[in-house]
Amino acid sequence: MAIRPIRLFGDPILRQKATPVLDFDKELRDLVRDLTDTMIDANGGGIAAPQIGVGLRVFTYVVEGEIGHVVNPLVEVVGDDEQVGQEGCLSIPGLPFDCRRHLRVVTTGFTMHGEPLRVEGHGRLSVIIEHETDHLDGILFVDRLDPRTREAAEAAIREAEWSGGVVPEIRLSPHAPLRAARQR
Q: What is the pTM of this model?
């Protein structure tokens, strides 16, 4: 379909809660195709609709060559195991940081055709599901960083060529922190 421009950190749409999809129509199918094309072109692991300026609860992903999408996702954590690893974002290009996520999640939602969908994420797919669902709630991965890493992220963003020396608000995630973060 089309490769769309990716909105960068500081764009207000990235901080807005996306609206649930009500119409499973051609427009939605075109959006999913545009998200997929944009994600692949940018060499990303996932992309959410707000990242291309569309305030709907839709994201696409690719893991080990498997491409998928979820409309109106609901995420459930499976177990207490966590993982820490380098995480990046197409809206914060070239700046990965260590971020703590759950090791396993299950997301339910719908396909672009309105069919019920269940995706079990483990490892990298779990990170992508959590990351993209956060986008749909106006949360960025830098909001989930521990305080020291968040300071490093602010400095790196300020120095990034694409930021113009400005660091938009990095805020604490409104979601409950993961176990290791609570122990600090």
A: 0.90
